From TrEMBL:
InterPro entries linked to this entry: AAA+_ATPase, ABC_transporter-like_ATP-bd, ABC_transpr_LolD-like, MacB-like_ATP-bd, P-loop_NTPase
Record-annotated ABC transporter domain positions: 8-229
Protein name as catalogued: ABC transporter ATP-binding protein
Gene3D superfamilies linked: P-loop containing nucleotide triphosphate hydrolases (3.40.50.300)
GO cellular component, one term: plasma membrane
Protein family per UniProt: Belongs to the ABC transporter superfamily. Macrolide exporter (TC 3.A.1.122) family.
A GO biological process held by the record: lipoprotein localization to outer membrane
One Pfam family, short name: ABC_tran
Organism listed in the record: Hyphococcus flavus
Record has Nucleotide-binding as a keyword: yes
GO molecular function, one term: transmembrane transporter activity
Classification of source organism: Bacteria, Pseudomonadati, Pseudomonadota, Alphaproteobacteria, Parvularculales
Keywords: ATP-binding, Cell inner membrane, Cell membrane, Membrane, Nucleotide-binding, Transport
Amino acid sequence: MNRGETVLRLDDVARRYGDLVVVEHIDFTLAAGETAALLGPSGSGKSSLLHIAGLLEQSSAGEVEILGRATSGLNDAERTRIRRDTLGFVYQFHHLLPEFTALGNVALPQLISGINKAKAEKEAKRLLTAMGLGERLNHQPGQLSGGEQQRTAIARALANRPKILLADEPTGNLDPKTSDVVFDALLKLVREEGLSALIATHDQRLAKRMDRVFVIKDQRLVEVKRQDA
């Protein structure tokens, strides 16, 4: 994709659970190489919106387009393939496999995709080194600090070279100083790789560092003017 082309589009998306409306009338586009922050308090619908955008959850209405392809009519296998080949996910908790080293955790998604071990480990080493973990490749998660674990999880999310990164409070479980280190590494690598990223956060200070800022308010998505972010 060329920079500026739309990689993700939400068109009049809604999510309801019976009579409970989580979000509705959501219109959003994300361009290639663009970063966007998604703000809102706990319970505002940020996670649901990310899950819909990432094809982890079906919307109740509307359409999700990824790389120009409508996804509402796809079966589970097709949705899984798009998630595997196009999307990367980072969560508040790292969910690393404790029995694997940092290198092994990052190589694993590539091995599952059919990449040979030598190539997978080479890419894992490159990503971990870019995240400042070149000296921690052979450490297991229990031997890493919280910030190091989360940087490993970010490297893992990028292992299959996704076009879009979706992150749900990726620094929400860290102290402010560690949060800054992790967020610096995340943004640096996203921009170096030319990725698009939609990052949910409650931290307005971090949100201001992204290209655009959105807030969920009264079940709707509103873009925040830069001077108000």
